[in-house]
Structure formats: C-alpha cells, structure tokens
C-alpha cells in the first residue's frame, strides 16, 4: 500500500512541478482560513458518526486498538497525517484541481468528480463502508481545499478523520491487510 502511495505521490510531485503556473508556495495560501469552532464541530460530528457506525456494524471491533494496542494507535495518530493524509491531499486535491482544472466540470460537478475519484482509489479495500466514507470525505476535503482555499485545512480534516476512524475501530476496513487481489 504505502509503496504505491509514495510512488504515486512522487509522480504527482513531478506532474505538479511541471504544471504551468503552479508554485509550491500555493500550498500555504489561506492556510489558516478556518475556525476552531468549525474544527471542533467536525471533530464532534465525525466522532459521534463513527462511534455509532462501529456500534451498528461491528461492535466487537469498537475501540479495539485503544483497548488492545494503544501504542499502535499512538503510532497511527502520529504517522497517519504525514504518511497518508498529506500525500493523498497533494494528489487528490492539489494535483487534481491545479493540473486538470481546464477539463473539469464546473461547480458541484468538480466536487462530485473529485469525491468519486477519491473513493475509486480506495476500492482496493472491497468495502462499501470504505467507498461511502471516502466519497463523503472526498466531498468534505474538496470543500476545505476549494471553498476555504486551504490545502492545510484539507490535510488537517483528512488527518482528524483518519485518526478518528482508527481510534473507534473502523480502521479494520481501512487496514492495508484488507487489500485483496487483483490489487
């Protein structure tokens, strides 16, 4: 999983670097264009949703890492933002919108297309839960990137969402060991 993500990230970096008019400093634009209240609301809503979902679909997995392997959960919480959320946002938001803006549909169509591509990239998990959550996440992260104009905010939301997912036990669906052939 991670070698593929890092390989695609490397390719994305090369493509971004070659994108006409793109400057790396753009990643800092409007980096603080969000509020703590908005972030707190997202944290609460995401937590409540994920706890409710795990209780409905797999109560046996609820808070598994927190109960059984808290040191692994801490490692995920530290590593996930940098090793997963950051590269994915670079590829699925920055590269997608900066390099391919000319061929994207306007308005909501671009948001929906981006969320669909983001969800499609997670199909290797063969889970409707992953597909639905990554589609919804794709919409939210796209909103943070496009409407708020903040790559940093998209990364923060993505990191928080992923860390909550793993903390409550939904990480069992996003675990790279679940990737099946032909992937």
UniProtKB/TrEMBL annotation:
InterPro entries: Rce1/LyrA-like_dom. Pfam families: Rce1-like (PF02517). GO terms for molecular function: metallopeptidase activity. The keyword Metal-binding does not apply. It comes from Ruegeria haliotis. Residues 72-160 form the CAAX prenyl protease 2/Lysostaphin resistance protein A-like domain. The keyword Membrane applies. Coiled coil: none annotated. Keywords: Hydrolase, Membrane, Metalloprotease, Protease, Transmembrane, Transmembrane helix. The chain crosses the membrane at residues 40-58, 70-87, 123-144, 151-175. This is CPBP family intramembrane metalloprotease.
């Amino acid at each position: 999983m991670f070698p593929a993500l890092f390989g695609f990230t490397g390719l994305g970096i090369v493509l971004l670097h070659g994108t006409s008019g793109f400057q790396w400093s753009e990643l800092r634009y409007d980096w603080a264009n969000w509020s703590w209240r908005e972030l707190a609301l997202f944290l609460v809503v995401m937590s409540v949703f994920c706890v409710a979902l795990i209780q409905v679909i797999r109560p046996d997995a609820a808070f598994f890492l927190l109960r059984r392997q808290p040191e692994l959960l801490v490692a995920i919480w530290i590593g996930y933002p940098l090793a997963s959320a950051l590269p994915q946002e670079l590829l699925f938001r920055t590269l997608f919108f900066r390099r391919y803006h000319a061929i994207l549909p306007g308005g909501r169509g671009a948001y929906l297309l981006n969320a669909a591509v983001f969800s499609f990239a997670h199909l290797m998990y063969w889970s409707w839960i992953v597909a639905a959550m990554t589609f919804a996440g794709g919409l939210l992260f796209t909103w943070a990137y496009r409407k708020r104009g903040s790559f940093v905010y998209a990364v923060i939301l993505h990191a928080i969402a992923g860390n909550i997912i793993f903390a409550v036990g939904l990480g069992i669906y996003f675990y790279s060991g679940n990737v099946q052939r032909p992937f």
